Amino acid sequence: QQADSSRHRSVYLPLMRGLTPRALEPFDPVDQTLVSGNRETTTVPSQALFMLNSSFVRRQSLLLAEQLLTQREQTLDQRVREMYQRVLSRVPQVTEIERIAAFVKDYEAAYDAAQESNSSAATRPTGNKPGEDAIRPESSHAAAWLAVVQSLYASAEFRYLK
Description:
The structure is a single chain. The chain is 52% helix and 0% strand. The protein is mainly α. Helix 3 packs across helix 6 (140-153) and helix 5 crosses helix 6 (140-153). It starts with a helix and ends with a helix. The relative contact order is 0.13. The mean pLDDT is 79.
């Protein structure tokens, strides 16, 4: 249970024999009751789905998005560069910056339009499953950046080391 509430990467989670933390289940972990000198490398669709649907991933995405947005003097290019450094440890390509700029603009417009059609905050989509904590950005700008950060977390480049 402590492992399920931990905010650290899985390498730091305590593992008990026979109990797999919920956050690790989609990643096909090795059975902890067996002694295994070498583990097969596997990729299953639930890994990508976890990164796209997990309230933990959405919450972490929102935290990073809000941190990026608090630095008001930064340009969009500088924010994208910082985000890529933090998440993927590399500099983004010019085309990636351009795509993100277009995405943020389009996402904000769509989010604002959805807000106008759903005037009550209770009907606003949260991207969460029933029973999970609602992750609600404060603005369309924060919602757009949450989506961008989450897309980097869900990318294969984030999940696999070269």
